[in-house]
UniProtKB/TrEMBL annotation:
InterPro entries: Porin_dom_sf (IPR023614). The lineage of its organism: Bacteria, Pseudomonadati, Pseudomonadota, Gammaproteobacteria, Alteromonadales. Residues 226-240 have a biased composition (Acidic residues). It comes from the Bacteria. Keywords: Signal. This is Zinc-regulated TonB-dependent outer membrane receptor. Residues 224-252 are annotated as: Disordered. The keyword Signal applies. It comes from Shewanella algicola. Residues 1-24 form the signal peptide.
Length: 407
């Protein structure tokens, strides 16, 4: 009996040693990456569709946990704490698994994660070189689009970097407005397809181009006539905008969104630590934005401002340049525009927003940024926007181990 116990003990010890050896080969199995990002600011005014408010405030406080689950899967959880209107909210931004061992350049991701469309969207906001995302992101993607769904990606075996992907999401945050709560929305409402290609120019430069398509089955908005309730519904609409301002929902939607993006990076001798330049830009076009719902629009030929047409579309773009001229200092300039339509009873109001931003940041290390930014905003019929000059002082500090940033 004692011999049997000895053999069992030795077998248990061997299994334990084997498991320990496997975990030792990949330290993340027993020692996951844990990090926190602190974001605070002071701002002299409010910006349209933005999350930061006038005065002192906190941006997104990010708590992240990530590790290889085993040889086949990687997992990550990211929670974000946000403060708005005196209230604090805890949101789950990421909670996904991703394959590590699929053949032929394939990988799959499932759960809640950032969509890979565009250039900035798959990056966390604390990596940005400006205090807010461009106006096009705030208008069409709710700042940055994350959702519950699945992704299949493929990296081609080519000399140039070339990746393709398709995604399917629930699409709740990209649904068109539903004032009366009587619309039937699809449970799987968003589908995307994307491709990105890039490479090097010598040892000092690199580039990437991307094209993305987003199909939003729930993105079509309907013009409605309001009789005898203009004042009451105007109040409801205003209240809805106040509640909507700090959500991650898109303010302007459509059935089809097309995105073209590019980025160019330069560093002397390929060494980005001491000096580098990044130039990037994106263009958004949102089409099929309005439809005629039977019983709500009686005579669209008498509309005051703009007649609803199948050719109507929202669009926006930005161009950004950021230059790190020393290990501790960087400066950036960005210009962007958004052109949209807003439904007012039986007609459309065109509106336009222009933003010019200049930033200067001090980095005491790779984990620290203290940023001063000047923003000039110019709105034409853009709801609640006045021409204004806004100053923002922001800090972003990272604690703990944090994954590498995107290209």
């Amino acid at each position: 009996m004692s011999a049997l116990n000895t053999r069992v003990s030795l077998l248990a010890l061997a299994c334990a040693f084997s498991s320990y050896s496997a975990m030792a080969e990949d330290s993340s199995l027993t020692n996951p990456n844990i990090s926190a990002v602190l974001d605070g600011y002071y701002q002299t005014g409010d910006r349209p569709l933005a999350e930061r408010e006038e005065g002192f405030g906190l941006g997104e406080t990010e708590l992240a946990l990530s590790a290889n689950i085993d040889d086949n899967f990687y997992g990550k959880v990211t929670a974000v704490i946000e403060s708005a209107d005196g209230e604090t909210e805890l949101n789950l931004e990421e909670a996904f698994i991703q394959t590590l061992a699929l053949p032929s350049g394939l990988s799959a991701r499932a759960g809640r994660f950032l969509s890979d469309i565009g250039y900035l969207n798959n990056q966390h906001k604390h990596t940005d070189s400006f205090t807010e995302r461009p106006a096009a992101y705030r208008a069409f993607l709710g700042n940055h689009y994350f959702d519950d769904g699945i992704r299949l990606s493929y990296v081609a075996p080519t000399d140039l970097y070339w990746t393709m992907g398709v995604e399917a999401f629930s699409g709740d945050s990209l649904r068109a407005a539903d004032e009366h709560g009587d619309r039937d929305f699809d449970d799987v409402g968003v589908f995307t397809a994307l491709t990105k290609i890039g490479g090097d120019i010598g040892i000092e430069s690199s580039w990437q181009l991307g094209l993305s398509y987003l199909r939003n089955e729930n993105g079509l908005a309907y013009a409605e006539e309001h009789e005898g309730e203009e004042e009451h519904e105007g109040e409801e609409e205003h209240e809805g905008e106040e509640e909507h301002e700090h959500s991650h929902s898109a303010s302007y939607t459509g059935e089809n969104t097309y995105i073209a993006d590019f980025v160019y990076k330069w560093a002397p001798n390929g060494n980005y630590k001491y000096q580098n330049l990044t130039v990037s830009g994106e263009y958004f076009r949102v089409t099929d934005i309005f439809g005629e719902e039977p019983g709500h629009v009686e005579d669209i030929d008498d509309m005051d401002e703009h007649e609803i047409s199948d050719d109507d579309y929202h669009e926006g773009w930005y161009l950004s340049s950021v230059y790190q001229f020393s290990p501790s200092w960087s400066a950036g300039v960005r210009y962007g525009e958004v052109d949209t339509y807003e439904i007012h009873e039986d007609h459309l109001d065109p509106q336009k927003l222009k933003e010019t931003e200049v930033s200067l940041a001090w980095h005491s290390s790779h984990f620290t940024a203290v940023r001063f930014q000047f923003t000039h905003q110019d709105g034409t019929n853009f709801d609640g926007v006045e021409d204004d000059n806004i100053f923002t002082l922001q800090y972003v500090m990272t604690l703990g181990a944090h994954g590498a940033h995107q290209f």
